[in-house]
Amino acid sequence: MDVAGATVLLTGVTGGIGGALAAGMSERGARLVLTGRRREALEPLAQRYGARTILADLADPDDVARLAEEAAGTDILLANAALPSSGDVLDYTPEQIDRALAVNLRAPAMLARLLAPGMVAAGRGHICFVGSLSGMAATKSSSLYTATKFGLRGFSLAFRQDLHGTGVGVSIVQPGFVRELGMFANTGSGTPGRVRTVSPEQVVKGVLRAIARDVAEVNVAPPELRFLTKVASQFPGFAERVQRRAGAEPTVNAIVAAQRSSR
Questions:
Q1: pTM of the prediction?
Q2: From CA 196, how far away is CA 115, in angstroms rounded?
């Protein structure tokens, strides 16, 4: 689908790579509808891109329903919002677990459910989820985040089949470690095992390719990380033993500590 002239609802614009996605969509002529929880963060972006804004907390089911209602007529849903949700599950409160599941999985699935009928009726549209390579392979101290990204990947690939033939495409874009911007970059930590990173611009290109060509899945990561992820997805026990021997635990612990306040 062509982004130019399309109305794009972008979630998670006020944090992480959302700003880069907004810039990339705007440069290609999209009409942006930006959503987030903080008005003071949304307003400068609205002015910069000539965008409409909708305040909403994706952890609140009523806000999600209202957001879909106010964003009726959306041509492209770009579901980018997510919480880091790293750390031992035993260290989470029930409320924090609910929030992680709501923001990372329920909200994008519900927005897709509520906006897709309008797209189907129009015979055109696209739903693009920003996932993670954590949706393909499990790692230590990522139980909640991995659960939501595994779920998002499964939902995306199956929903794509449900909508086949309607004119509405569905894609998932799964980055590895992103430098400069985003939940990993904000920790200031190195990568576990010193794996290479990708830039926000590479993620934007992946999203644009997924939408333009209706690609089911785009993994944005260095070749070696994509390969290791595929191996880990097929042989989780083997991957678990390799990760333990890699000595990455201190780095993982530093990332978890830096993301604790985002739960």
A1: 0.92
A2: 36
Q: How far apart are CA 25 and CA 145, in angstroms?
A: 27
> Amino acid identity, residue 140?
K
- Residues whose CB is less than 8 angstroms from the CB of residue 143 and which lie 6 or more positions away in sequence, other chains included: 88, 89
Q: Tokens at residue 206, please?
A: 């992946």
- Calpha distance 167→30 (Å, rounded): 19
What letter would DSSP give residue 105? I
What's the pLDDT tens digit per position in 62-89?
999 999 999 999 999 999 999 998 889 9
Please give the Cα distance from 186 to 48 (Å, whole number): 23
Q: Which residues of 220-231 are buried (b: 16+ CB within 10 A; e: fewer)?
A: bbeeebbebbee
CA atoms within 13 A on the CB side of 244: 6
* pLDDT tens figures, 223-232: 999 998 999 9
Q: Backbone phi, then psi, for 175, in 5-degree steps?
A: -80, 160
The confidence score (pLDDT) of residue 186 equals: 76
Whether residue 181 has pLDDT greater than 80? no
Distance of CA 192 to the CA centre of its chain: 21
Task: Report the pLDDT value the prediction gives residue 259, as an integer from 0 to 100.
Answer: 80
